[in-house]
Design a protein that fits this description.
Blueprint lengths: L1 E6 L7 H13 L7 E4 L3 H5 L3 E3 L7 H8 L20 H13 L2 E8 L1 H16 L5 E6 L15 H19 L6 E7 L6 H4 L14 E3 L7 H12 L4 E7 L26 H12 L3 E6 L13 H19 L5 E9 L4 E8 L24 H7 L11 E2 L2 E2 L6
Parallel strand pairs: 1-2, 1-4, 4-5, 5-10, 6-8, 6-9, 7-8
Antiparallel strand pairs: 2-3, 10-11, 12-13
Bound molecules: 6-O-phosphono-beta-D-fructofuranose.
Amino acid sequence: MNIAVAQSGGPTCAINASLVGVYKEALKTPQIDAVFGSINGIEGIINDELVDLKLIIKTNEDMELLRQTPSTVLGSCRYKLPDVDEQSDTYKKILNCFEKHRIEAFFYIGGNDSMDTVAKLSDYFREHDVHIKVVGIPKTIDNDLPVTDHTPGFGSAAKYVAATVQEIIRDSSVYSIESVTIVEIMGRHAGWLAASTCVLRANDEIAPHLIYLPECKFTSEGFLEDVRKQQAKHKAVIIVVSEGMQIEDTKSLRDDSVDVFGHQQLSGIGKTLENLVRENIGCKVRSIELNVMQRCSSHICSKTDIDESEQIGSSAVKAALSGETGKVMVFRRISDIPYVVKIDSVDAHETANKEKFFPKEWITDDQNDVKEKAIRYFLPLIQGEVKIAMKNGMPVHFKLK
Ligand code: F6P
C-alpha cells in the first residue's frame, strides 16, 4: 500500500516536523511502499499533484533539516471541501487520485478548518464502503483546536512572542519620557498566544502590564482607564492585545473581507488602540503588529513543540494502520510538573470547525490580565532549544529543488 500526506492552513514552525513523523514511521513499516506528498493541501489530491517524498527527502540530513524548517514544504491551502450533496464530483476526483496511486491512508496536517476535510472525507468513504483511512494531525499557532491540550506549532510561536515582547520591554524602557507600547499578536477569536506572554513573569518581568484577549470584556473607556492606572506605576507601559479583540464602542481599522471559511483578516486592533491612546492620553505611543513573523520563527522554536509534533505525526500512521479513520490525533496532559502528555485520537467531528477559547476562569476579574494558572499551563510548551543548522551566520532552511 501507499499513503499520502498534505499540509493545510497557516504555517507554523512544526508542520514539517509532523510530516517527518509520518514519513519516518512509514519507512519503518514494511507494508507501506511509498509516501506521497500532496502539493497545496487537499487541492493537490483533487488536481492529482503528488510527489513521492523519497524524491525530495533523500538523506538523513534532509530529514533533520526539514524537521527544523518552518512553514509547509508541500505548500498549503485554505480550501473548504464542499458538502457531498452539493458537489460530489470533487469527492470522486479525490477517490480517483487515491485509487490511481494505491493510497490506502491519508494524513491531513491542519487546524480546525482542515479537520472539517478529515470529517467530510472519512464520512464519504464510510458511506461508499471505501476502505481508505483518513486521519487528522493538528497544527495551529492559535491553539484553538478543541479536545487537545495544545496544538503542534503553538509552543514555538509562544516562545517567539514572549521572547520578542521581552526585547520590546528592554527597548521601550530607555527614555525618561512616558510611553505606551502595544503589541498585537495573532490568534483569531482565541487569546491563547497573546496570553502566553505571561510566561515572562516566571523570569521576574512585571510586563506586559496589560493583556487583552478576545475572551475579555472590553470598552475603549475601560482601556484608557487601565492605561492611566498603569502609567501611575510605570514610565513605559507595555500592552499585549490579541488580534481578535472587539471594541464595542470604537470603529476598528480592520478590513471587512472574509475567506472561504468566513474568517476576516483580523489585523488592525493595535493601530486602533494606538490612535485611542494618542487622541485621549497624548503620550508617546507605538503599536507593533507581530504579524506573520510569529508563525515561522524557527530560530527560537521550542524543542518540546518540535519533538511532540514529530511524535504526533508518527502516532497518526500507527492509528491508521490499526484501522482508525475519521480521527484526529490529540495530546492529553497528564501533569504539568513533571510535564507528561500522552497522544490519543478522537472523532474528527469533535474538532471540525470548532474553536477552543482561553478559559474565562484564567482571566483576572478586571479583564485585563491572566492568572498564575496560565503560566503553569504555558511553561512546559516552550521548553528546550533545537540546535539550528546555520550557514553564513543565518539559519538554513530546507527548500524544494
Ligand atoms: O494560522 C493561524 C492564523 O495565523 C491566525 O492567527 C490568523 O488570523 C490567520 O491564520 C491568518 O492567516 P492567513 O492570512 O495566512 O490566511
